[in-house]
């Protein structure tokens, strides 16, 4: 007599994997013998109760990735406070109420940030090229078509510009004329130039008028350097909602000679 011990599924077909185990007729009890008389029942084998079968050891659960990531790591040593070193951007404030017998650091030593700001503040403006007949004609065209409404040719600094102290104005910066060609104001430049960035009260299509001095030494134009063509930069000022639409239309109405004079003037700055 034989019994079927297991079956397995492979490739969606049930295949019987049989192991034939011979059974002795003497090992079958009477009840099992009666059951075996039926062709639909298989004989069973009694298990010896004196020798209980031990259950297999439980498998240790494998930790999940989240549990593994949450595993505490070795504590890091406490961070030490950074010691200010010469030549770094540290504040130059001093203690107004020092302890007795304490040396007060000198306040005349500037930080790197203030020294850099002074260097940039004292730089000389770009020197324009010597005027020619074409440049002078282009300057007149610049004003006539409306460019000077935003690109204001000249402004003056304040009467008293401080140089580290409001009591002592800077002779180099006070009451000086600056030919920067900008009104330093924010204007709507339309959807074509919008960068999608809101900064303070300025919306995505608002930009501060860029100074034009030094324009002849630049390689790329507009706020994002999108073009190296000066004519394209002028035409890109036009767009839906731009305050410069009429000025760009006036530029387009010029003849070729006037347009060339305007470009020559801009390149001379």
Give your account of this protein's structure.
The protein has 269 residues and is mainly α. It has a domain at 125-268: Cytochrome Bc1 Complex, Chain D, domain 2 (Orthogonal Bundle). 23% of the residues lie in helices and 6% in strands. It is built from seven helices and six strands. It has a two-stranded antiparallel sheet. A two-stranded antiparallel ribbon has the order 3-4. A two-stranded antiparallel sheet has the order 5-6. The radius of gyration is 44 Å and the shape is flat.
Shape: flat
Helix share bin: 10-25%
Whole-number mean pLDDT: 75
The CATH architecture of the domain at 125-268 would be Orthogonal Bundle
N-to-C series of helices and strands: EEHHHHEEEEHHH
Keywords, separated by commas or semicolons:
single chain, mainly alpha, Cytochrome Bc1 Complex, Chain D, domain 2, two-stranded antiparallel sheet, 7 helices, 23% helix, disordered N terminus
Indicate the topology.
Elements: E1 8-10, E2 13-15, H1 30-36, H2 65-69, H3 112-121, H4 133-144, E3 155-156, E4 177-178, E5 186-188, E6 206-208, H5 230-235, H6 245-252, H7 256-268
Antiparallel strand pairs: 1-2, 3-4, 5-6
